[in-house]
Amino acid sequence: MHTLATTQLFRPAMKKLLLLSLIALSGAAAVQAAPARSEYITRIESCEAILREFMGNPATAIPPSVLQGAKALVIINQFKAGFLLGLKDGYGVIMVKRADGHWSLPVLVGAGEVSFGLQVGANAIETVMVITDDQVPRQLYNQRFNVGVDAKAVAGPKVAEKEQYNHDILKVPVLVYSKVKGLYAGATVKTGWLQRNDDANFSLYDTTYTMPELLYSDWVKPVPEVGPLMTYVQQIAP
């Protein structure tokens, strides 16, 4: 039988073993293989599909008058991670309209932590953001951008609403269009963030240029896989 002294002798060793185990598990979780380039291409294609689906349905389509004033577009695909639509993870792309009227490369970003209230049963949320202030995309350079906090955001008017909406809404920096598994999120825009993802763009474009250069310069040429999205955005928001 173990005596009290024996038990006390083993306690430090057990604590050390437990600590080493926790460190090993943390390290294993941190060391994850980076997604293959094919995964980033899939993200681009899914964002294009999301935008086309929005524009193809009058209940979610963005009016031409809104797109005419767009300085940037963000398309987001996010995933449910909680019972009451606590979305913790996702991805998206951002594109900016340059001074010459042409749209930039689609630049991959991370996205997460969105809540649109109690919509139990939703598995994912798809969002298109129309940015009307050309300074907003630059906030992504050095920090996580919090929608509705770092820039005011409201639900954007839709084609189905004809011309009955208040045109002052077009002056709001971020107009949000969201769809949750066939249910529409309405006007509630709460916490949500976007964050630059340089590693993804390094892989997608085979470059060391980062978000500012990809969005605002012509130093990096489009890869074939992003062509359809760029063409479609130029078509709907010339």
CA-atom Rg in angstroms: 22 Å
Q: What is the H/E string?
A: HHHEEEEEEEEEHHH
Task: Report the sheet-strand fraction.
Answer: 15-25%
Instruction: Tally the helices.
Output: 6
Low-confidence stretches: 17-31, 182-191
- Portion of residues within helices: 25-40%
Average pLDDT score? 77
Task: Walk me through what this model shows.
The chain has six helices and nine strands, in the order αααβββββββββααα. It is of the alpha+beta class and 238 residues long. Strands 1, 2, 3, 4, 5, 6, 7, 8 and 9 form a nine-stranded mixed β-sheet that branches. A hairpin with a 6-residue loop joins strand 1 and strand 2 (87-96).
Q: What topology emerges from the helices and strands here?
A:
Blueprint: H1 4-30, H2 37-55, H3 64-68, E1 72-80, E2 87-96, E3 107-112, E4 124-131, E5 145-146, E6 153-155, E7 174-180, E8 183-184, E9 193-196, H4 198-205, H5 211-216, H6 227-236
Parallel strand pairs: 6-7
Antiparallel strand pairs: 1-2, 1-4, 2-3, 3-9, 4-7, 5-9, 7-8
Helix pairs in contact: 2-4
Main attributes?
21% strand; 32% helix; 238 residues; globular; 2 domains; alpha+beta; 9 strands; nine-stranded mixed beta sheet
Question: What is the structure about, briefly put?
Answer:
By secondary structure, this protein is of the alpha+beta class.
